[in-house]
Amino acid sequence: MRVRVTVMPKAGVLDPQGKAIQQALGSLGFDAIHDVRAGKVILLDIAETDATAEDMARKLLANTVIESFTVDIP
After folding, report:
1. Bridge-partner residues for 14, per DSSP?
2. How far is the C-alpha of 22 from the C-alpha of 18, rounded, in Å?
3. What is the pTM of this model?
4. Which domains does the chain have, with CATH numbers?
5. CB-based burial of residue 51 (10 Å sphere; 0-12 exposed, 13-18 middle, 19+ buried)?
6. Please, what is the end-to-end C-alpha distance for the chain in angstroms?
């Protein structure tokens, strides 16, 4: 089963990568951008259930102090 884990910084946590992307887009003339948040998407091919993927995300893939995550089966 293919599982997609999306990890994003929690609201209120500084996102320097997102800010750098926002500034770069502005310098290219894309001025309508109000905010950018940068995260990561991890695709897993596993033989287990989505509950196992959630456990993987909680224990390793996301730093749950500053990041939130979602587990999707596309």
Report:
1. none
2. 6
3. 0.86
4. 2-72 (3.30.1280.10)
5. exposed
6. 9
Query: Tokens 């910084």 — which residue?
Result: 9
Name residue, tokens 């894309």: 30
Three-class secondary structure assignment of the chain: CEEEEEEEECCCCCCHHHHHHHHHHHHCCCCCCCCCCCCEEEEEECCCCHHHHHHHHHHHHCCCCCEEEEEECC
In tens digits, the chain (74 residues) has pLDDT values of 899 999 999 999 999 999 999 999 999 999 999 999 999 999 999 987 667 889 999 999 999 999 999 999 87
Q: Supply the pLDDT for residue 1.
A: 87
Side chain identity at residue 73, one-letter code = I
